[in-house]
Amino acid sequence: MRELQTKVRNYYSGTLQRHGPTPLGVDWPNVVSQYLRFVQLLKLCHFGQPFSLNDFGCGYGALLEFLAMRHGDAVVTYRGIDISPAMVDAARVRWANNRRAVFAVGSQCGALADYSLVSGTLNVRLGHPVPEWEAYVAAILTDLEASSRIGFAVNFMLPRDDATAGAGLYRTVPERWTPFCERFGRVELITGYGLREFTLLVRKTPPPTARPGTGSRKAARRSPR
Predict the structure, then answer these.
(1) How many helices (H) and strands (E) does the chain have?
(2) What is the arithmetic mean of pLDDT over 4-10?
């Protein structure tokens, strides 16, 4: 798995070098699709109270831009993790004045947070055999569960009719990973948001013990819209 991680690290360091801290720099086609994915992933989070967040595969920290734009009043303690040191360096420069944001180089979350998110990181297979890549995906999902108090969210690309399209990408169906994630809690499947992919929201059960003074709150099931 170390060789796989090295290849992933070098790939994203290369995209950043070619395109800079932009959606293309983290291998997204444009900011519109990037933000649309953030909308789905953040349906996991309860913005009515402060929370902490792991952003695994954070790139240059684009999620922070979206949070500021869409949830400017929310109090979010953010931790971005990326396997590419170049990405983390770019993020630290970009967000040097954000006191609630820290960044770390790593192949795992490395710290406990209320929520953890992964956007697109598990979709770039880079030609590795599917069984090898799926073992990597399973390890990441297991770490997300261990690193999240309340839950985690992840997205995957759906198969295409043209089997040769995007041969370096990992495409799968909800049935492959929903049962795996159901071991960790309640799974909500989100589809039909204009992209050929799906998002899984995993809310851990039983619910975490309420913090002193916050009361007991249950995570509400969100509509896919």
Answers:
(1) 6, 7
(2) 67
pLDDT higher than threshold 50 for residue 217 = no
Q: pLDDT at residue 218 above 60?
A: no
Count the Cβ atoms, other than its own, within 10 Å of residue 131: 8
Structure tokens at 7: 């290849």
For the chain, which domains are there? 2-204 (3.40.50.150)
Q: Nearest Cα to 64, choosing from 103, 106, 30, 29? A: 103
List of residues 6+ apart from 79 with CB closer than 8 A: 52, 53, 54, 55, 101, 102, 103, 104, 109, 111, 113
Q: What DSSP string describes 61-88?
A: THHHHHHHHH-TT--EEEEEEES-HHHH
Give residue 31's pLDDT.
78
Mean pLDDT of 190-215: 79
